[in-house]
Amino acid sequence: MNLSRNEQRTLHVLALGGRILHERNDSSKITSVTCVTRDGLVLVDCDLFVFSRLRRKRLIESASGSPYGISRRGRASVRAQRDNQGA
């Protein structure tokens, strides 16, 4: 599956335990998203456009209004990257 660099970066953060927090307006449309790593840092590459593309491809999912996380399909399509935290 062809994914952009920002989509890959976002999926990698989610695979390492990150979450996408979303806010809705009165008509229950998602108006803003914030991708947070497991350490509490904010990923600026994840915007509403990247979020909607990942959601349309069913690479991220949410259950019962909880923050979005990576789906099984997303784990299968993310490319392996070296984790810089321990190196």
From TrEMBL:
Superkingdom of origin organism: Bacteria
Region (Disordered): 65-87
Signal peptide: none
Coiled-coil segments on the chain, per record: none
Short name of any one Pfam family annotated for the protein: YjhX_toxin
Family to which the UniProt record says this protein belongs: Belongs to the UPF0386 family.
HAMAP family hit by this protein: UPF0386
NCBIfam families for the chain: PRK13687.1
Annotated protein name in UniProt: UPF0386 protein GCM10007301_01110
Species per Swiss-Prot/TrEMBL record: Azorhizobium oxalatiphilum
